[in-house]
Amino acid sequence: MISSSPGGLKAYDLLDELATEHASARPPTVYRALDFLIEQGLVHRIESLNAYVACPCPEHAHGFQLLICRHCGRVEELHLDEVNDQLKIRAQTLGFDVDRQTIELLGTCDACRADSKGSAGGSPITHCPTS
């Protein structure tokens, strides 16, 4: 379900889909499953949207950045290790111990820029860009 979505899915959207096949599905079950998928590096939580998106390259070490289209909701994942390294160094310099890092950049994708109404549909993230 998550991997076929062009953008993030909220937990209750997942619950609604799951309930069509498993009537006994409840929110705690969905949240436990999402927590497990996050721990395994298969899913990322989009903090600004309170939603979840599949990771296109779970084999990559997970310092990542997310590009989120504010019009269609499309999400792209970047792996700019130098950004993560610089943030870690700066945090250590300031005596700050980072538990979790979330970098989300909101903007407009090419498809929505081309569509003056901003209603272009996104496509799921299927690649692992490194720059």
From TrEMBL:
Organism superkingdom: Bacteria
Localisation per UniProt entry: Cytoplasm
Protein keywords: Cytoplasm, DNA-binding, Iron, Metal-binding, Repressor, Transcription, Transcription regulation, Zinc
GO cellular component: cytosol
Any Gene Ontology biological process: negative regulation of DNA-templated transcription
DNA-binding is among the record's keywords: yes
Residues annotated to bind Zn(2+): C69, C72, C109, C112
Entry similarity comment: Belongs to the Fur family.
Protein name in UniProt: Ferric uptake regulation protein
Organism listed in the record: Modicisalibacter muralis
